[in-house]
Amino acid sequence: MRRKLLSGVMIVAILSMLTSCSSLGIGGKQISVGGKNYTEQYILSEMTSFLLEKEGFDVKQMNNLSSSVVRKALENEQVDVMWEYTGTALITYMGQESIADPVKAFEKVQEIDKKNGIDWMNMSNVNNTYALAMKEERAKELGIQSISDLASYINEHPGELTIASDAEFAKRPDGIPGVEKKYGFEFQSGQIKQMDIGLTQRALDKGQVDISVAFETDPTIVEYDLLTLEDDKSFFPPYRAALTINEDVYEKYPEVKEITAPLAEKLNSDIMRKLNYKVDIEGNPVSIVAHDWLVENGLLEE
Prior knowledge:
Elements (H helix, E strand, L loop, with lengths): L1 H22 L5 E8 L2 H16 L2 E9 L1 H9 L5 E5 H8 L8 H13 L3 E4 L8 E6 H7 L4 H10 L6 E3 L1 H5 L4 H8 L8 E3 L5 H6 L5 E5 L4 H4 L2 E3 L12 E6 H6 L2 H12 L2 H12 L5 H11 L6
Helix pairs in contact: 2-13, 2-15, 4-5
């Protein structure tokens, strides 16, 4: 009799534990969302987590990782999903030549990464690529809207305009030398002012240079009223943000594609730049910025 009573108590205890685990999400739909170590990635990771949690996933965020570390974690199945950039994958991880067409670049990384057990989906219009920027008022004054306009102006007024650049971009073939070759102009000696990448837009704002190297989604573009010149000859490779997912996880949770698709459809570089601004310049918490934008755009309830 005592043995039967003990068995009954044990069964009740086990059922109680299972109920508790279920309420914590253990044994349910679990997924980890990875992210790199800068604001844009924090925001994308937070938004993705909100959307997955809304659909019943128990989400673990693994942020603040370098590109190489989070990529390796995705390959090793320590991270399930993350937002990656087509240009980063194609050039840095896969050692391929850049592809100017964003769709073809996306299709190429899809093809190559399939062999690595990674699926790509939901490419957005967030393009975190390089850009050349000018103060908007100054650009209008000189009649410059595109890099072709800049090339024509420099050829007609040699030695007049200066550019702020980090040392690496000033020398790389896919940096200033490549831009000069593609667009048919050349900065003269002393026109390229080398400095830390974080100081280039500040130098432009203070009038110390006429042009600066920038990134499309950099919030200082908003802060300093800068104009990013149109890359009308498509020199800079596309760095489109898209969701990458371990294929085993995708097979288990195919709904992830549908859940995250509206996010990719609504985001673009201009929106991303403004969201980065809210965090980096205005000092708002990432979670609040991400949540409020999702609510405002009908992707999440209040």
